[in-house]
Amino acid sequence: MTQKPNPLSSIKVNGPIPAHLARSVIEETLRSAILDGRIPCGTALRQQDLADLFGVSRMPVREALRQLEAQALLNVIAHKGAVVAPLVQGDAVETYALRILLESEALRLSIPLLEKEDVERAAKHIDDLEMEHDYSEIGRLNRLFHMALYCKAPNQRLLRLVEDGLNEEERFLRFNLEAMGLGKLSQEDHRALLLAVEDRNVERAVELLKHHLNRGVEVITRYLNSPEALNKKTPR
């Protein structure tokens, strides 16, 4: 009987990890492996296996898994422990409805405090998106563009929730963007949004953001209900 490959075998650990860095190194390493699909959806991550892999005790592993759970990358399931979460959790419409509320407020709070460098960074991400053909990188740049606009919101808990939603979207787009055909449409929305931000027109910017996210949920919902998506296997 052929043995299934162990997803953790794709993770390379270079030498001993200093104790004070163990949690952050484990968190970032697992996060990258989940986002790029080396550790697929549904994979159970057992604390002892990870402790052995990284050469540490179970305590920093437990802390790292809690952080990843807070970022919606893991679910804790009875009798299985920490399991890599689905690409889109729950109902896409509900997920985006919550994102619209959170991101609209973050944008509203951030715009009056944005500096020239923040706007220039957001514009650079749009330019990079126009030139990028790697769908994994497109998802990352999309997240960075939005966070550049929200970054000055003074409510740090709000920003963490916003980034969690963008992380979930980035992970989904890595595996599905090509089939969905969102590329250029998304950039038109981004440029219009950035123009309103540059003009410090808060209400116009929030209106454009809502339109952008609502357009996204329509396309994603249509795609998720398509035969292609329903028959698609978990990425490996």
TrEMBL record:
Gene Ontology MF term list: DNA binding; DNA-binding transcription factor activity
Keywords (A to Z) from UniProt: DNA-binding, Transcription, Transcription regulation
Domain annotation HTH gntR-type: ranges: 20-87
SMART domains: FCD, HTH_GNTR
InterPro entries from the UniProt entry: GntR_C, TF_FadR/GntR_C, Tscrpt_reg_HTH_GntR, WH-like_DNA-bd_sf, WH_DNA-bd_sf
One Pfam match: GntR
Gene3D superfamilies: GntR ligand-binding domain-like, Winged helix-like DNA-binding domain superfamily/Winged helix DNA-binding domain
Protein name per Swiss-Prot or TrEMBL: Putative D-xylose utilization operon transcriptional repressor
Gene source species: Pseudomonas fluorescens
Record lineage: Bacteria, Pseudomonadati, Pseudomonadota, Gammaproteobacteria, Pseudomonadales
